[in-house]
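A reminder before we start the practical. When you read a complex entry, don't treat the lines as separate problems. The point of joint prediction is that each chain is placed relative to the others, so the output describes one connected object in space. Small molecules and nucleic acid strands, if listed, are placed in the same frame. In the example below there are two entries. Take a minute to note the order of the lines before looking further.
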Amino acid sequence: GNSVTQMEGPVTLSEEAFLTINCTYTATGYPSLFWYVQYPGEGLQLLLKATKADDKGSNKGFEATYRKETTSFHLEKGSVQVSDSAVYFCALSSGNTPLVFGKGTRLSVIA
Amino acid sequence: EAGVAQSPRYKIIEKRQSVAFWCNPISGHATLYWYQQILGQGPKLLIQFQNNGVVDDSQLPKDRFSAERLKGVDSTLKIQPAKLEDSAVYLCASIPAGGLAGRTGELFFGEGSRLTVL
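Here is the predicted structure of the whole assembly.
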């Protein structure tokens, strides 16, 4: 079945540091890949997505590239801010199947 | 546009008691999901509705969990009797129509209902 594996947290970074959160997946067919973010006290919201191989999703300075050869969708940001502190979830969907989420990675950015 | 509304935000009960959570999706959204998010884990789908019909309830523990969406709008998720392992955040999400989640991935989530079972 479909599954997502993402790096364990928590991740603690200083402001302006480079961020990478690894995500790999297992899926049948050609899945779409997503990163969701959950800020403290708020609901999950879509951060970015990629629907086919080699696509790059980007939003709010975050980027992730759909790599079919390595079945990966790593999240990156060149310079994190305190406001980026949140829990990040990698997710996938194949065809009309509901989203399958990873376990989440908590990011804390300190000033 | 109003978002997905859920209530209550927090509930503490003792094991073997019952609890109900309510969700009102975004107006016009035909598809509604209930997810369970246990601490330290990602959300896990419990049930998917398309209008007032169940599309997928394969992961719903039917001996204790039930859900309904009688008029195809708001939905209720019930747990009876609750167990300690049901402590989690119950998330409701909606999308405009069935099948779009696979292509757009943009589920609209409520803030969740946090359940603590003692």
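Discuss with your neighbour: Chain B touches chain A through 26 residues (CB under 8 Å). What might explain this?
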